[in-house]
User: Fold this.
Amino acid sequence: MSTPWRATVLGSQVAELLRRPGRFAATGLSLLIAAFVVFGTVMAQQIITATVVEKFHGTPEAVSVVVTPGDDGEDIGEDRLREIRRTPSVTEAVGRIDGGSPLDGSAVERYLELSADPGSGALAQVRLLEGTYPAGPGRLAMNTRAAREYGLAPGSSLTLLRPETDGDGTRRVTVEVSGIVRGTDTNDARPTGYAPGPQLAELLGVSGYSRIDIRTDTASAGSFGSAGSAVSGSASADPAERIRQAVPGALVRSGNEVRDQEAREAVTEAKDVLELVTVFLTVAVGAAALVATSTFRIVFARRVRQLALLRAIGASPRRLAAALVAEGAVVGLLAGATGVLAAWGCGQLVPPLARRLGHELFAPSGLPLTEAVLTVAGTGLLAVLAVLAPSLSASRVSPLEALRGAAAGEGTASGVGRTLLGLLCAAGAAFLARQQYVGLPRPGDTEYDRFAALTLVVLSGGLAFLALIALGPRLVRPVLSAVAVPLRRTGAAGRLAVAGVGGAPGRAASVSVVVALGVCLVGSTLTCLASLSAYERYRQAVAAPADFSLYARDTTSLDRSLAADLASHPELTDVTAFRTAEVVESTRGATVSDLDLDTVRSGVSLTARTGSLGVLEPAHVVVDADHAHRLGVRAGDRVTLEFEGRPVHLTVAATLPGAGPYGGNFFVTAADLTRMGADAAPTMVTANASQDGAQGRIRAQRAITDTLTGPERGDGRVMAEEPAGPAEGSDDLRTMATTVIMVLGLTVLVAVAGVATTASLTVVERRREFGLLRALGLSGAAVHRMVTVECALYGVLGGILGLALGMPYSWLVVRVAEASAPFSVPAGELAAVFTALVLVTAAAGMVPALRASRTPPTVAVARSE
Assistant:
């Protein structure tokens, strides 16, 4: 006989859900955030793709056909370009050349990219800003980057060093700057000079073009397929065949195909960051699953009496578990749909908001339906997985529970099986971590498979986190007893808060572990960023230790008065003279220098891997990474060098993270190098421009040139280095790390939502406890403080566990990613993250604490719900 739907098990669960929508909000919040995060990433990918495609400027839109050399790699000559221009339906054709040349003048080595461009018309890639575009030989137009860095303007002149055609020597070619142009973002990335194809070919001494861009009329433009081949049997295909005949063996492709390929490559570069973000996205989803599981467990524990009544009237555990799983699926689907719509709406708002802030972004057209459906279905599946374990536990409730009060709290923390599982995961994590530690690469090792090593480190970290989940209830009380000492001295509210968290270690662990996951990943990312950034700054300092470096060209040393003469020029600063000498270390040659490492480029300090780069004492030495690793030494050890057959015993003061400046392997004091027998004349002099900017460097360059007057000064050769500002790699590293931290911040957001949910449900569950405390004389304000401190303790526990787990893995990741990088802990940033997390988790409990503080004392004697 059929029964009304409200009388069925599933019907009763639906009715309970509709009667208490607050429970739906509690269980669905973390799932909604997970869906929002996932679909938000989809929208971010769509926005970035649309923006890159819209703003990308590669091959001009007017280009119908692109011709490039074939397999033989031979450039396309001027005669074949003329044949292409004579082909019917070809409206315009220009030759492209990409080359470059060093710049001559005052012995400063600089480089200028050179590119052929018509300068005007539909096929031009540059736009004239000032002056005129080159119309004759010996003239170039400079892009804004070259004008800024080299101090050029219309009317200026510069000398190029062009190799001779026979490959022996170079020829100086003086050209005039006719104008300043602006190219695409890609073209303006480096100093570049432009001229029409024939003039640039003559300037570079080449006889052909690396590419021909062709504009045809509208009819013939459509005759090329996606592969660039002509449509057979069509009269309009004749121009393509003629082009192939004009340049036999060349690759002929349509302009659309080339533009699509360029756009795909640009989008691929942008998607690399998003793919990394997607990897970290799984962390936020996993955190949401943990919070949802904990929330469902608390909700079902609160409904134990209702579930026991269903068992008493004949509901089997199987049907009851199925009903609870169905309830979780409904919650997940609704939360997923809400999260998808919210993310889509935010995605539509981002471009106009960005335009108001001065950034041009473009929104995709329409809703990505496939991704939306998959996100909603995935959220429903996530909910089912989250509710599975709590539903199985809840369905086994005894019918006798219907005669008792509602579940008052939590039972024992965990069983032996869970502890053994945690220990097994911890052992596996330790084993994998030790394997990676033993096999760490030596500095400069290019054969080491870092991707495979990082994969195993991530696997080890995953096992460690699983161990933390399993052992969490057993870790809560020991950690709590250590951090709660000051709280017990703050009065009854503090002592009761500690007792409340410690009295339910399973619940505290389920919330704190999610917080720990966020702290672990954010803290590890900050630490790895600090370490790799320190190494990047070190590499910048070593690559460009000074603005100008003066070497001896034909002699072994420079004039002793050269440094003093350079220092007398106000255009120069930080003039430093030092010596180098050849020594023997363990039968191998090496270089020793008395360069004071504190004088390396101002504002970019070198860092030590071991020891300190402070004041170097006599009989001490600083060793570069390669020799330190090969000798197996670190700060405090002894090394022996041999200079001209005499042994020199030194104590290691510090070891460097990588190579030493100017190729030095060992760095000693000037007195020690003199004592070893080195010549007193300097072998190198370095200097910086006293003023920032291109003009300051140009004036400094002239001062150096005026000082170098002949062989008696060493016939010096000057190397001009770029200022050691933020390098492109450093910017990319920080941008990627910032993006990752923002995504990982969503994990913390999920954790905070879990704290708020747990606190809300706990307040409902502990109403009689709060009422009893009020009846015993505890004020509402004290109850409020107690609940707020409990929530703050979730943040404290999570922060401690997360940092304890994250720091060792941070060290291992840094060593795997870059063996030479010094391990740098950003204590201030980590302290700020820890403090902010405690404050945020405390704030998450403010509303539940307010509800708890309003509990009347009469609840203590009322019948339980």
Observations:
- Residues 1-7, 225-236, 405-414, 719-729 have pLDDT under 50 and may be disordered.
- The first helix runs from residue 9 to 19.
- The CA atoms of residues 116 and 542 lie 35 Å apart.
- The longest strand covers residues 170-182.
